[in-house]
Amino acid sequence: MISFQSKLPKTGTNIFSVMSALAQQADAINLSQGFPDFECSPELVSLVNQAMQQGHNQYAPMTGLLSLREAIAAKTQELYGASYHPDNEITVTAGGTQAIFTAICATIHPNDEVIIFEPAYDCYAPAIQLMGGVVKRMELEPPDYRINWTMVRRLISSHTKMVILNSPHNPTATVLQEEDIRELISLTHKTDILILSDEVYEHIIFDGQPHRSMARYPELAERSLIVASFGKLFHITGWKVGYCMAPAWLMNEFRKIHQFNVFSVNTPMQYALADFLQVKEAYLGLADFYQQKRDYFRSGLESSRFELLPCAGAYFQSVKFNHISEDNDLLFAKTLIDRVGVAAVPNSAFYSKKTDFGILRFCFAKKQETLTKAVEQLLKV
């Protein structure tokens, strides 16, 4: 027998893959995994084809195509009043998850402590653990999932290296408020604490609320690695293209890992994205586009037995069901697939302790006919 010790012995297949596979087996409507079921812009596809036809099919620069980095810098300056230099403060990545993993690899040493807020996107903790870091978890509770900053201060120690934030938040659909920013500035002032800010849903915020990017606040920007995703921006999750922004000294460390992690990102899609970023309405209209879907889905479920939780951003709607069934959320989610034909994600999957508040997460980044069918089925519960 070959002796082997797993580096992540408690980690299995992620919940998104599990629920999507169950949905496929049952031919159910898949509202579990967070991807659109509608097409991206034909113009964007045409730009990719054009780049391929023009021969842009070899390695891109390790840091990303300069024209794309320049377009990202211009967009960030216009939206957040923040200057990031394309040469040494922006790197194009193979999606948001790779950027997060690379940021953690570049900054976390053995025994460094990293604070995360649960429910949390499932890639944070494993990356920290792989680097020998210590995950300090703070559980947030429904219905508002607000951060208790007094409790956060109690988690801070001389070993605290990083705080990971996600706004708009997956899975809770909450967004950071100005009071959160004030607390974060106070918390990190005159410390060496870094911030990893997962902002992949930055343009999907509802009811006129602003996106409070770390880039807006110089006191936070100076210590932040900011992650963004073109997959969420342009409905192209399968392309796996994102980027990271950080001060030059931090980006230098990020690139040391990035060059050996993926080296570079597919070239023709970078050319297309650089051009398509000039079509500002494609991302400035995203909030209204998804708010219509949110409102349609919520209005359809208002007469259901589910209790709708607030949804301020991202494209997820959480619902409470524990007044309907005593089943745990995973079992209830599987029952929905088998008996109702709709797949959701159980929110306990986002907690390390599998904390179960009787809540499911639905993705409403779907065509209207998909949402209509899903609502019809869910009204049968």
TrEMBL record:
Pfam family, one: Aminotran_1_2
Cofactor(s) required, per the database record: pyridoxal 5'-phosphate
Gene Ontology cellular component terms for the protein in this record: cytoplasm
Transmembrane regions listed in the UniProt entry: none
Gene3D superfamilies in UniProt: Aspartate Aminotransferase, domain 1 (3.90.1150.10), Type I PLP-dependent aspartate aminotransferase-like (Major domain) (3.40.640.10)
PANTHER family from the UniProt entry: FI04487P
Name the record gives this protein: Aminotransferase class I/II-fold pyridoxal phosphate-dependent enzyme
Organism encoding this protein: Mucilaginibacter arboris
